[in-house]
Write a structure and sequence with these properties.
The protein folds into 2 domains: 336 residues, 5 Propeller (Tachylectin-2, Chain A); 111 residues, Jelly Rolls (Sandwich). Helix content is 3%, strand content 52%. The chain has 2 helices and 31 strands. The radius of gyration is 22 Å and the shape is globular. The two termini are 14 Å apart. Keywords: Glycosidase, Hydrolase. This is beta-fructofuranosidase.
Length: 471
């Protein structure tokens, strides 16, 4: 696929030119230092059905290559209708011994004498009978992280929890010298839906045991910042000396027109419960990304880099019809990786430094002093950048910025208008990522037509054309 064939294709973000992509999954770094990123993938159509795990890898977080598929639906098995979301980590060989990994560390795992670190995927398997109630499955890979050597072992059946309306999306973390698993869930309590995170002991990854609840939706901080019918894709990672919990809000069809709502974060601490199992005690919260086209992120501790990285799923915008998506032959993309940090109790995202390798030539910024962009006055005044489509650029801003599509007929359609202070703006055909220094980012989709141009105006500091190295 080339730019002339599809002006909307985000070539810097997608490896696969065809098919459906959603949640990032199974992200880990193998012993050779190579990043492996899996994701929900339907190679046969642009619809969310019969989900496989697509797979790409990179040594630098910039240049990605397509790898063999990860887990795929297996007729007659617990994942016969789809391999849904989950995580990746380095574990001991499957001999029943406990792993000693850090919290989803992307670096090599220090095992016992002679115990190799095995790339391992933990995911939700759905059988087509009741897909809201998923089992936990485990797949082992070879040392390179590319070949499946032990597939689809059922580690946890659907637990017997009163009123359970859904459970899925396992996540694994270490606390108190032990390994724990959580799954997002929702329960019906007294005529209402309440989200919850069920807690499991999983010293042996292939045998999960339900031990209680990590967090219940009636917690006052959780209820304020992440009300939902079910929490999807829970991610629990240490950031800045605290624990950050990411939750994707899901709404039941009886209460919401659209089930996938938004992504929230809670900042808090892990504390010991009376039974010795951990509980999450949140103290603050907010929204991970305020854009309309961001969901189901995965956060990974990069132990080697001393940071926490996050990828999200950007779906096709609601202004895009299913017929248009079918015609283009592809749907969805992953965001660029972002580095997470805490500013007090507020979560911030920044572009990883590796993305600078995408910069090609600097782009000229033209004076636009006759145009008033609120908040863009001051040193440097208002300037603008005109981009031919498909626009692939990075823009560093000092303050207020607007992004517009200029039609061939002279019309202008506003895509983004914000005054969030200094920020980094990425444009990749139909995908826009705005990452301010001091507030939550915004991810959205927009679709220029043939002959359109993209105009960026405001308090712009620098800009670069983006392209893959060596292209």
């Amino acid at each position: 696929m080339t730019d002339t064939l599809d002006l909307g294709f985000p070539a810097l973000h997608r490896v696969h030119p065809l098919g459906w992509i959603n949640d990032p999954n199974g992200i880990h770094r193998t012993a050779d230092g190579r990043w492996h990123v899996f994701f929900q993938y339907n190679p046969a159509s642009t619809r969310h059905e019969h989900i496989h795990w697509g797979h790409m890898s990179s040594s630098d977080l910039v240049s990605w290559r397509e790898e063999p598929l990860g887990p795929v639906p297996r007729p007659g098995e617990a994942d016969q209708d789809g391999c849904w979301s989950g995580v990746g980590l380095l574990d001991h060989a499957p001999d029943g011994s406990a792993a000693e990994d850090a919290e989803l560390s992307a670096g090599p795992v220090a095992g016992g004498p002679g115990a190799p670190a095995v790339p391992t995927l933990v995911y939700s398997g759905v059988d087509g009978i009741e897909n809201q109630l998923a089992r936990v499955l485990v797949t082992r890979l070879d040392e390179s992280g590319t070949e499946l050597v032990r597939t689809g072992v059922v580690a946890a059946e659907v637990p017997e929890v009163p009123g359970l309306i859904g459970i899925r999306d396992p996540f694994v973390f270490t606390y108190g010298g032990k390994r724990w698993g959580i799954q997002g869930a929702g329960v019906r309590e007294g005529g209402r839906f309440v989200p919850t995170l069920l807690l499991f002991s999983c010293e042996d990854l292939e045998n999960w045991e339900l031990v209680g609840t990590l967090l219940h939706g009636d917690d006052p901080v959780a209820a304020e910042h992440s009300p939902a019918d079910l929490w999807e894709c829970p991610q629990l990672v240490p950031v800045g000396g605290r624990w950050v919990l990411l939750l994707s809000r899901w709404g039941h069809p009886s209460t919401h027109e659209r089930s996938t709502l938004q992504v929230d974060y809670l900042v808090g601490d892990l504390v010991d419960g009376p039974d010795g199992a951990p509980r999450f005690a949140p103290t603050a919260g907010g929204q991970v990304d305020i854009g309309p086209d961001f969901y189901a992120p995965q956060a990974v501790v990069d132990a080697e880099g001393g940071r926490v990285l996050l990828w999200g799923w950007s779906w096709e915008g609601q202004q895009r019809s299913q017929e248009q998506t079918d015609a283009q032959g592809w749907a969805g993309a992953l965001t660029f990786p972002r580095e997470l940090r805490l500013d007090g109790e507020e979560l911030r995202s920044a572009p990883v430094p590796e993305l600078r390798a995408l910069r090609a030539e600097a782009l000229p910024l033209e004076a636009a002093d006759d145009v008033d962009v609120p908040g863009a006055t001051g040193a440097g005044g208002t300037v603008e950048l005109l981009l031919e489509t498909p626009a692939r650029a990075e823009v560093r801003t000092r303050g207020a910025v607007t992004v517009e599509i200029l039609g061939a007929d002279g019309t202008a359609r506003e895509v983004l208008s914000v005054d969030d202070g200094p920020a980094t703006l990425f444009l990749d055909a139909s995908l826009l990522e705005h990452l301010p220094d001091a507030v939550s980012p915004c991810t959205l989709r927009f679709y220029p037509a043939d002959g359109d141009r993209v105009r960026v105006r405001g308090a712009l500091a620098e800009a670069w054309a983006l392209e893959l190295p060596g292209r």
